Each structure stands twice: as C-alpha cells, then as structure tokens.
C-alpha cells in the first residue's frame, strides 16, 4: 500500500504529465494553424487578412507552448501580447464564415476552370 506522500507525489506526476502533454499538443496545433492560415491566404475565397491573422495566431500558439515547456517561471496564463493575436485570428475566421461566407464568384470561377 502506498503512503499519503507517495499518493500525492503520484497525483502530481500525472498532473505534470498532463500539463506537458497538453503543451506539446498546442505546439502541433500551431503547425495546423499556420497551414490553415497559409491556405486561407492563398485560396482567394476569403480576405487575405484572415490568413495573416491565422498565421500570427499560429506564431502566438508556438511562442506560448514553448514558453510553457522551456521556462519554469513562465506562468499559467498566456501574456496579453500573445493572447490577443490568437483570439483575433481564432474568432475572426468563424465570424467571417457565419456572416459573410466564401467568395462565391471566385468559387464558381475555379469550379468552371476545373470542369
């Protein structure tokens, strides 16, 4: 049977493992956000600024995840100068899709060109 101190140490180990695993996942999310931003930028179906915002958000995710992984005194909350670009990129694109949608003219032109 494990003592109370050993159980608490084991619980802390699993919490730390979750924290570091989550931050590694965010690092991979930054790669996804960068590729998505590039595709949005190059597609022509959306304003290029949305792609730029997503690329900036990807850089913010990457900086934040590496800060969490590499620096012990980084903190548990994301600094505002990193969080604001992430929020702008992550909110602007779905709002654009809900309100405006894709550029239908560009979509039809490309559909006819491939047919």
Level of helix content? over 70%
Task: State the separation between the terminal residues, measured CA to CA.
Answer: 70 Å
- Shape descriptor reads elongated
SSE order, as H and E?
HHHH
Number of H- or I-type helical stretches:
4
Q: What does the average pLDDT come to? A: 89
| Total DSSP E strands | 0
Radius of gyration: 20 Å
Which terms summarize this structure?
4 helices, 0% strand, elongated
What does this entry look like structurally?
Helix 1 (4-43) runs antiparallel to helix 2 (48-70) and helix 2 (48-70) runs antiparallel to helix 3 (80-99). By secondary structure, this protein is mainly alpha-helical. 82% of the residues lie in helices and 0% in strands. It has one domain (24-114).
Secondary-structure map with pairings?
Blueprint: H1 4-43, H2 48-70, H3 80-99, H4 104-114
In short:
With 115 residues, the protein is mainly alpha-helical. The chain has helices at residues 4-43, 48-70, 80-99, 104-114. The radius of gyration is 20 Å and the shape is elongated.
